[in-house]
Structure formats: structure tokens, C-alpha cells
Amino acid sequence: MNPPQPNFYNPQQQQQNWGAPPMPSQMTSAPGQAPLNVNGNQNYQQQQPQQGTNFMTQQMAGMSLNGPPPAVGQQFPPTMNAGPPKQMPPMGFQGPPVSGPPSANQAPNMQQNQPIGTNNAPPMANQMKSAPPPSSVAQGMPNNNFPPTPAASMPASNNFNNNMAPSLPGQQQQQQGRPPMPSNPITNGTHSPIGVPTPQPNQGSQNQFPQQAQPGMPPAMNQQNQGSQNQFPPQSQPGMPPALNQGNQNQFPPQQQPGMPPVANQQNSFNQPPLTGQPRMPPMPNQPQMVSQPPMPGQPPMAAQPGMYQNTPNSGPMPPMPGQPPMPGQPPMPGAQYPPMPGSQPPSFQQNTFNQAQMYQNPGQMPPAAPGFPASNQRPGPMQYNTMPGQQYPGSPQYPQAPQQPQRRLDPDQMPNPIQVMSENQKTNGGVFSANQAGLVPPLVTTKFVTQDQGQSGPRYIRSTMYNVPVNSDMMKQAAVPFSLIISPLAKTVENEYPPPIVDFGELGPIRCIRCKAYMCPFMQFIDAGRRFQCLLCKATTEVPAEYFQHLDHTGQRVDKYERPELVLGTYEFVATKDYCRNNTYPKPPAIIFVIDVSYNNVKSGLVHLLCGQMKEIVKNLPKDQGHDKSLMKVGFITYNNTVHFYNIKSSLAQPQMMVVGDLQEMFMPLLDGFLCDPEESSAVIDALMDQIPKMFGDTRETETILLPAIQAGLEALKASETTGKLLVFHSTLPVAEAPGKLKNRDDRKLLGTEKEKTVLTPQCTSYNNLGQDCVQSGCSVDLFVFNNSYIDLATIGQVSRLSGGEIYKYTYFQADIDGHRLIQDIIKNVSRNVAFDGVMRVRTSTGVRPTDFYGHFFMSNTTDLEIAAIDPSKSIAIEIKHDDKLPPEENVYIQVALLYTSCSGQRRLRILNLSLKACTQLADLFRSCDLDTTILFLAKQGLFKLLEHTPRQIKDGLVQRAAQILACYRKNCATPSSAGQLILPECMKLLPLYINCLLKNDAFSGGSDITLDDRSYAIYFVLSMDLPVSVSYFYPRLIPLHDVDLDRDDIPDPIRCTGEKMLDDGAYILENGIYMFMWLGLGLSPEFTQSVFGVQSVQQIDTDRNSLPVLETKLSKRVRGIVNRIQQDKNRCMRVTLVRQRDKLENVLRHFLVEDRGTDGSASYVDFLCHMHKEIRALL
């Protein structure tokens, strides 16, 4: 329940002070809330020593471009010389090939045992100058007591650098069989693996099963790519995930290594030359050759043991034995749980560095299979460690069962991940967020917080990609971070937040700036004793109307400031006068018209019976406006097949009347009185109509349907009734009947992922675009509910919804008994939410910047106004802002969003959102105040708009290049000097590589021939209209464990990283992204769980075809069903629960959504993509 609103202008009522400075007792922060400092940087104070964020990738291991010879006694793994080819085993991922001459530093005949630097690092003495302070020691990194770096205006970043520090003496001497060193007390041991990676069957070729389309299910992945799913990108596009549905044609052919026998399953390895100008890679763990190495200082030389490498200082320390804590510089063993190390800090206070010392060597490694014998692809033992997630290491050795050691690779647990970032932000920024100053960076979208509006619009309504704006366009171009806003003007408030108050000035109307027409807001400054005010957006001064005049106090503030919401709040509403209404007349309450396809398909699937049976329940949920106790909205009904049928449901009639319009060329409205009625007054007539419709059309054999004339009929009905509203259209087949809007079947999914895909993703005619424009100009929004069993051309018919601010729902292979509940829940959520009808939105900015590009579901007839027939809390609009002049560094950047709309009670209102940002002259200030979730959603919406004009490869290349440019700019201008082999990420953008990779894998961008054309179009429409909370879990799905839930709680358990490596054989998990929900059941799941939740003894007995959980009275059953229901409640759409048993055919569909793993279509894993991003950044530097 929202608290009651005061009446602002009733003199008898005591005035409430809005946004008044809090009393001393209110100044304390909420429990667990970190204090917010004034520079908008929540995680650290500006005085904190400057830190940089470094990662070094596996591909850079053992490389030196300009480094000096190693320190005395330093040993390195053997390297390939640059002369005649030596034997090389199949290697793990090294990144895409790069051609080019060797560097000047690379000796032409480097000997194999010549020691070379592993890092591009300067000598140790120089390293100490740029290393992070002791407080930012990364997980597993020995504390080398580096001197602290001087404080600077530099954003903190995270540093995982295991190789830049000299090894501890004990590490250098430790050999196999010795106990591990005691853990360093100053290490960050906060990461412990959630579980042991489970072996996956047939990992060399995961997609063994034929894929079958499941009713209502996401399509199975393309099977052409299965044989080569672990191939890296085509050479024509270095480092990019290949376009889908290209089979093997663009993959690297398996290459035999010089002097090596062919290796089985070689398609899973990456064979390529090293990067330009870098010495060759050190051999991987199963390299058979041994090289004698110089002894350690003061020690006799160690004899090389067959099949083993010596543990040289730069090869990383030995993995710990089971049950032992990890050594310094090493992550814990999988499956082991360690307490946090003393003195450890959350990684958000570290510098994030990756370097290739995070790859491990495998002692006890046997050579690959002898020539002439295929190398085995499976290891004995319960666990197998893959070189990359989901990738089987070719030629894996066989050895007796012993404590398994991880192969050398980048450790995914050491890389930044969303779960950790969200958890830390919840701890530091949960509680109350006071929006009281310019440039304040809000909590993450996923953080639970309460906004205290003190003159700035809350982040639920409007977010910026940056809260410190560069003063000129050159800095913007250099940084490459987009300056954009994501606006959800009708976003829902949470408990303890006030809804925006409504201010009524009567006939006077809203007070506005005389020049730029901005509305009265906290950004206006009153001058001349209160007789005039200056607008901070355009600097013009305006006379204050006599009715609005008020004296100023000694500080220059109006005496009544805290009694007027528009002077102290960031978000509020004005009641509009007739000047803001169509034809200068106040509007009527809006209406909802149900437009139902009654052709053979919808009757046979049970849809018509279901809708008519549930209509009484649906119309009970129409929205009530603020201050009203019942809904004022009207309803109407239209059915259609190859003709259109209107119904008179006037309350005075004994039976409803039906009128048929057969002339589809000139659609008109055959009745005026009785079509739109109050659902309560006409409930008896509506019930009679719902009984009759299934009987009238129950025996229909009509399969050829129309669509455009039916939508036009609804539009004409609203026009004739002189009201606005929306149509809910329930449609099933491609409109092929002879009528306006007839479409051809152009289904050719082979074009998806190719340069010609835009020919099937753009409309095949302009009829539906024109209809959409007609709808928006009459205030009519169209929501499409599609029930297709075959191609329906959403790319064309969906334009009506896109242009009118509508939404598209899709139920492929709909069956009323299976999907009926989901549909009815979606309709009820749709009709019950608060909607702004017949809207016009404009964004005003202060001088120096201006909005230029707009992305979302709306129509624009000019360059400034967005016409939106309906917008609701689940939709957002992305707006890009660009410089048109230099900004004064001492002034703020002001933004005001005004949405003029008709409420669901028929009142014309203006909703005003105000936001101010700081201007900055330093790039470090910009990178300290970025909002990554907002940036990613903006790039997604912008990319999908451009996708209809450019090829998919251009769009994906552009995303990767932009991300590389952002990170290269930070590295060059903001980070401390360090080795080129380190990948440095700004703190607030450390997830940028992961999220960009998620975008590239998303169906909206990468759907190939493994999905249908309609699925691809549906994903595009969904992303274009979605808001920020939905986008976070859509691009990075939530993976929620169920097998270890706390039965005494009722909240949703904390999610884990979205990778198959975290899924245990004896676990149960929910994977959901807002559209699909899977429940994955491991084959080792305990009988207690299956009995309590499913009522059967084992996983094999569970009926995976059921789409809901059985209702059992056990505590665990109630808890699991409660989690599912809670997830459904938080979403805008009801998701079908799909049960997936481990190793079933459907598991490949689920694995498509495990975005950190290598894609079933061959797209790069997180580890692979991070390596590729590092290569792109180094190329820019």
C-alpha cells in the first residue's frame, strides 16, 4: 500500500514539507548502507590510492615484446624457437590468428631453452613502482609489500596479478610430493568454488541427440555446428564468434602439428600462430619434450623427471593437495571450501588484473598417445577438468586415479562475475538512496533499495550511462562510452516510496520557461525578490505569474518551497489544461478492445473456449487510477476470420447483438451506441456473449484469415467513440485471405546469420507500418498475442505494435490445457497494469548537449517528440545525447523529461522527470561514474535498430570494437603503467567483456537457422521495448540452486554464475531469463528431493513432459513451488516451466543459455572472449 497523498493546495489542510532537509535523526544511513560520498563514487573515497584493473590472458603467457632479460636465477618454461618447426602438441585456446612480421626484439634463431620474459614486464625494480598497494592483493596473490601508489583522481579497479610479483622462496623450491606452503595471511580468499565441475557426456561432440521442436519451447540449436562447436571464429573476422548456421565452413580446419601424429577430436583445439611480434608460446601441460633448465641460485640442478615439468617460478605454484588450503597465488581446488583469508577485502576494492600466471601446470602429466594410436578423450575418475569450459582437451593422458589437478588455464573463478558484483553492491548500496545532488551514481538495477527523492528523479524512472559528462565531444569520442538515457516514465515504485504527487494549478496550468518551455522544477532559480525565475537549461528569465508569486527568504529560496513538490522533488505530475488535449477537449476514459481470431486453428487449440471462459475474470482486473476505488475503463469485443464481427453489449439489451462487416477494403464502424461499455454494468450481456461465441464458431473450417482489417476495425471503433485505448489482438496464422494486409510466405531461415538476413527481418510491405502510424495518431495501441504453428511473419505484422507502443506475446504450438494458465496470467498482468495512453514525450537538455537518437516502441513525426499510444511500467526508451558545444566545467548538465498522457481514468496529465549530472574534464572522473547495465541495454537497442540496415557481422564487430576502445582508453589514460600483458578494467566496467559476449550470443543478435524467423523477430521486438530490470536477467540469465534451499525462508535463493561448471550432478537448478524457465535435474539428485518435490523415488521416474510442479504437502515441495511462484510474480510475463533431466535431448537447449560457456553454436566462452578482447585492446594501444 502506498501512503496516502496530501492535498497540496487545500489551505485548511496542514501542508506537508516535501523534500525538506532531513532532521538530525534522519541523517543516519540505513542499516548496512555505506555512506555515499559527494563525488558520486560509492565504492571508494576519492582519496583512496589509485589502482588499476589488470587481467592477463593465457594467450599472452611466456611472451616478451620489449622486456629485459630475466633476473638472475629466474627460470621460465621452454619456448618454441622462431626457426625450424618443433614438435607442438594440440594446444588450448590461444586466441584468433594474427598475421604479421615478428617483432624487432624477437631473435631470428632463438634457442629452445633460452630464457625469455613471461610478461612483457619491466624488471622487478620497475614493477614495484606500478604494482597495486598491499590492500588490493588479489585472490591467491602473495603480498609482496609493494609501496603504496600516491593518491590520484583515479577510479579504483580490480587487480588479479599472479605473475607480476616474484615467487616466494618456498615456491621456487617446492616440488611434487612436498606439502604446500601455508597460506599467505594477506590474500583475498573470498572466492571458493560452489561445486565441482561435473563431467559431461561426449564432450567432444556434445549435441549427439536429434533436436525436435517442442511445443511452446525455445527452438533447439542448429545441429550443423555440432561437430565443430568448439571452433573459434572464422579467419575473416578475427576473434569474433562466427555467425550462426554456417556449419563448418568458417571454422578452422583441424591442423596437424609439425612432427605430430593426427590427434582424435582435434576440432576442439585451437591451432594458430602466435601474436605478431611475440615469442612463441610455452608448451601446454601435455607437451612431451623436456628441456634442461638452469639451476636455482644456491641449489643443485634438479633432474627432469619423465613426463614432468619442473615447477619454475613463472609456471605458477603447485596445486594444493585435497583438504589443504590453497597456497598463496593459487585459487582453491574445485569442490574445496575454504574460509576467507584474514584481512581479505571484497574484490571491488582491488585492481582487476588478469595475467597468464593464473594457468596451472599439471604435475604427473603423461605424454600424449604414441604415434599411430588415437588419443583418448576421456579420463578415468569421477571428475574431468577441461581446458576451457565445455571443451575437451585433445590427447588428454590416462593416469591412475589420484587427486586430480586442474590443467593450466585462466581460472574463471578469478575473473569478474555478475554474482559477486551484485552481492557487493547490495551490501554497500542497499537501503536508502538519497537522490539529492548532481552526478550521484545510483545503486545497481539488481540492488534492493528505496529512493528518497530530494530533487533528482529516482533511478527507476531514468538512468544515465554516465553521471560525469565530459566537457567536449573530443573527450567523448576518445572515451567511446555512449552518453545515453534509459527512461521508464511509468516505472513501479517499491514499498516505502511515494508515487509521484499530482499538482493541479487549475486554469493557470503548469508554469514554464518562456524560451525552452521547460516545466517548473528544482533547477529554476528565483530572482528579483521572487518576481522572476531563471531557467538553468537555457538561462532565460521568465516572469512569475501573479497567482504563483511568493516572497523569498534570506537564502534566496521561496518561503513556500517545501510545500510545493515541483520545487523540491525530481518526479511529479501536473494536471494538464485543455490546451494540452486533442481538439482542446478533455478526453474520455480509455477503452480496451478484445479482437479475437475465431478461425479453425484458434478453435481447435482451445483458445477461443479458454478466452471466453476466463473473460469475466480478466475484465475484473482493469486498472484503477490514483485516488479512484474502481476502474473507469470501458471494454468492447470484435471477432474475425475472413470477415469482421462487431458486438453490441449495451447493458439494457437482453442478448448481445452481432454485426458483420464483409467489405474489407473500406472498414467502418457499424454501430456507435453499445459497443464500448462498462464491464460491471454490462456483465450479464458480456457473459451471454462469451457463452455464444464458442458455439457460433465451434464448427468453423475457415483457415484463411485476415489481420489488417480487424485491427483497422478496432481503430475505427475507438475513433467513432472519440476515445483512446488499446487493442488486444489474438491471432494465429499468416494473413493470406484476399484483403488489405495480405502477406506472402517468405520463410527462409537459412538466411538468418548471413548478410541477407535483413531481407527477412524487415517488413515485406508498408501496409502494417502505415496502419501503426494511423493507430498512434489516434491514441490506439496494439498488443499482439500470437499463437502460431508455422511462419506468421512477425517482422511485418509486428510493426503495428512497435509503432503504436504496443507489445508482442508469442505462444508457439499453443494448447489450452498446457499453456492456458500462462496465457490468462499474461492477459491479466497486461490489462491490470498502470498505462499512460495517447502519450507525447520530449527530452530537454541544458545548452551544450542535445538528444539525437531514440530507440524503442514509438513513432516520431518530427525530430523531437516521441508519440506513444501507450506506455506501461515494463517498457523503456533509450535516448542518445551528443555534444553540440563545449560544456562549462563548473556547471551541471540538466535533463528534463516530460510525458504528456491520458491516465486510465481519463485525466490529461504531465509527468516530469528531472536529472542533473556533473561535467568533468578528466577521463578518470568519467570512468568512475559509469552505469554498465544502462550502457549494455542502450548498445542492445541501438544495435538492433542498426541490424535492419547493416549486416550482422558489422553490428557484432562494431560492439566488440567499441568495447575494446572503451577499455583501451581507460588503460591508456587512467590506469597505472603496467605490463602490456595485463588486461586492465575500470571498476564500474569490469563486467563489460562478459556482457558484450552475452549480447553477441543473444538470440536477438545471433539467432541463426537453429531458430525460426518469427523467434528471431520476437527477440528483437522484446529487447527494443524491455526495461532495465528485465534486461539484466535476459542477457545474463539467473541460475538458482534448489537442492540446498533453506526451508525456513521464503525468498529466492541467491543465484550462482551462469555456467555448466557450477552445476552439480546431484543438484537441481532453475535457469530463467524472463522468457524461458528451465528446471534442470541432475541424475545424482537425492531420492529425498525427488520424493518430496515430485513424489517419485528417482530422477528417471520424473515426468519431464509436465509443465508445472505437483502440489505436495511436504515442506520442500512448498518451498520449491514458492520459489517458482515468486520468480513468476517478479516478471512481466508468465514463463512455462520446462523440466530438463541431465543428459536428455533438451539439455542442449538449456546449455544455449549458459552464457559463460562455449556456445552450442561455436560462440566463444567468457574465457575465450576475454582473451580476444585483450588482443583487440593491445592492437589499439
Automatic annotation (TrEMBL):
It holds the Pfam family Sec23_trunk. Residues 155-165, 264-275, 346-364, 375-387 have a biased composition (Polar residues). Signal peptide: none annotated. SUPFAM superfamilies: beta-sandwich domain of Sec23/24, C-terminal, gelsolin-like domain of Sec23/24, Helical domain of Sec23/24, vWA-like, Zn-finger domain of Sec23/24. This is CSON013301 protein. GO terms for cellular component: COPII vesicle coat; endoplasmic reticulum exit site; endoplasmic reticulum membrane. Residues 510-548 form the Zinc finger Sec23/Sec24-type domain. It is a peripheral membrane protein. Residues 587-831 form the Sec23/Sec24 trunk domain. Residues 1-424 are annotated as: Disordered. Belongs to the SEC23/SEC24 family. SEC24 subfamily. It comes from the Eukaryota.
